[in-house]
Amino acid sequence: KLLLNKEFFKISLEKMAALTEENRDYWTELDSDIGDGDHGINLSIGFRGVTEKLQENYDNSNDINDLLKKSGMILLSKVGGASGPLYGSFFMKIGKDVVGKNEVTFVEFVDMLKNGIEAIQMRGKAELGDKTMLDTLLPGLDYLELHKEDEDSIKVLEDAVAIMKQGSDSTIPLVAKKGRAMRLGERAIGHRDPGSASSWMLINVFLEEMKK
Ligand code: ADP
Ligand code: MG
Ligand code: MG
């Protein structure tokens, strides 16, 4: 049975930081089309802050929640844009039911994602179809909840990530009801929401690490 330990989450955070550097320009370009052109820059600043702290070995405890919560607080405090508080709350809340644990099962992992995604929704008040990162995250979460007990956990997450990717595609024809792109009205049609792209790619890091 798949067990995910604190090292898994630590490495995932480091890989997310690396992914963010690789996609900084892409995410920023998406945001130039329908926002203010800083989404990749924002996440790069945030995850550089997280990496710095990880290198300082600031978290010596064996507590998964500690690591994730502190990382979320860094994202929240370092990132100026909307995505900082949103991703910040995701990481601040994903560990709230695993306080003191140093490993979790796949079912617990899915419950963690649920807590994180609910925190994004609580903070941003967006719904499915508003052309935000939730168009990526909510359909994937629904799938995970239905299949979290299935035999092959990695396949379940793989399918969920594929659904999230489609969720990002689904933002292209939409008018935005939340975030900066709202101001564009119909001119947002034909453009992918930047946060919908970064969010499936970041969740995909967990999948890549699980495969190892
Ligand atoms: P800003 O818009 O402040 O410049 P970013 O460019 O970093 O911040 O992030 C923009 C992304 O944040 C959007 O593409 C969208 O996915 C997400 N977003 C914005 N507002 C909300 C919201 N209320 N709920 C969920 N996601 C949101
Ligand atoms: Mg922006
Ligand atoms: Mg901005």
From TrEMBL:
This protein's record includes keyword Kinase: yes
Indicate whether Membrane appears among the record's keywords: no
Gene3D superfamilies for this protein: 1.25.40.340
**What is a biological process (GO) this protein takes part in?**
glycerol catabolic process
Name the UniProt key words of this record, in alphabetical order.
Answer: Glycerol metabolism, Kinase, Transferase
Its pathway, per UniProt, is: Polyol metabolism; glycerol degradation
List the residue ranges forming a coiled coil, or say none.
Answer: none
Q: Which reaction does it catalyse?
A: dihydroxyacetone + phosphoenolpyruvate = dihydroxyacetone phosphate + pyruvate
**NCBIfam families the UniProt entry points to:** dha_L_ycgS
Physiological role: ADP-binding subunit of the dihydroxyacetone kinase, which is responsible for the phosphoenolpyruvate (PEP)-dependent phosphorylation of dihydroxyacetone. DhaL-ADP is converted to DhaL-ATP via a phosphoryl group transfer from DhaM and transmits it to dihydroxyacetone binds to DhaK.
Quaternary structure?
Answer: Homodimer. The dihydroxyacetone kinase complex is composed of a homodimer of DhaM, a homodimer of DhaK and the subunit DhaL.
Name under which the protein is recorded: phosphoenolpyruvate--glycerone phosphotransferase
Q: Which organism is it from?
A: Vagococcus xieshaowenii
Provide the organism lineage as a comma list: Bacteria, Bacillati, Bacillota, Bacilli, Lactobacillales
